[in-house]
Amino acid sequence: MKDSRFNIVMRMMVVALMFAMCSPVMAASQKVAAKAKADLVDTAVKAGSFKTLVAAVKAADLVKTLKGAGPFTVFAPTDKAFAALPKGTLEKLLKPENKGMLTQILMYHVVPGKVTAAKVVKLKNAKTANGQQVDIKVSKGTVKVDQAKVTAADIHCSNGVIHVIDRVILPSSYDIVATASKAGSFKTLIAAVKAAGLEKTLRGKGPFTVFAPTDAAFAKLPAGTVESLLKPENKAQLIAVLKYHVVPSRVFSGDALKAGSAKTAQGSAIRVKPTKKSVYINQAQLLKADIDAANGVIHVIDAVLLPPKPQSKASCEEEK
To answer: Are 145 and 123 spatial neighbours (Cβ–Cβ below 8 Å)?
Structure first.
């Protein structure tokens, strides 16, 4: 009987001791859990060094979004980063009439999904909530997002993660036509777009993907071809050729390669084929990819793409 009572007492003491040992661990876990409950906005507020960012998020009416389920990855500029902007820039952006512009800039700092530092360093770019891509470079232990340096990483929140950056990153504010004009190597393409009456369209909301032949690419066409296409009586043919270079959505090079083809605004599809040394769009070589524009993306090619000729009724009947 005494042994039985002794055993019971001993067991109670062991349980009590285990509980005492576990209590600090449980308390610590509860504190961590409590911290993890803070969403992106509340975490930024508590940090104290993102007052300007939080004010901008409120002005753009993005608080509800960034408090939502997400998850989101935010590249968060510090107050010092905003202070480094040209004088008057921030005040201009915070005005109600510039809300659209402010929203686009802020969304350029947000990547849908939770992208931790371990994942970031393996990327060359990331598609933002703005629609455009940020470039990511890793060199000698330093990670850069566009021109901004990541100064602190992996601040975990209940609905995502924050990486602190030392500069405000800016998306392109130029449309497809303006971006091509600035480049200076697409004069023939722009002249053709204007002659076809497509300038207003390509300056519109979009988004568009343009496989843009350079001036040198147009110069490779048979003598007299460009001059003939630019004549008013050949406008329909010119429109068809130009639309064959446009995909009515934003398609970055990585997505294009995975898909292997893309349906153009002309109606026919173009092929995207990688080789050991390059990537080809039909028979045209891709010279430069993923040039962001406010309403889409430009991929530079070294040849003009010609749409397939429509089959005649006679040939269709022969096939049958």
So the answer is: no
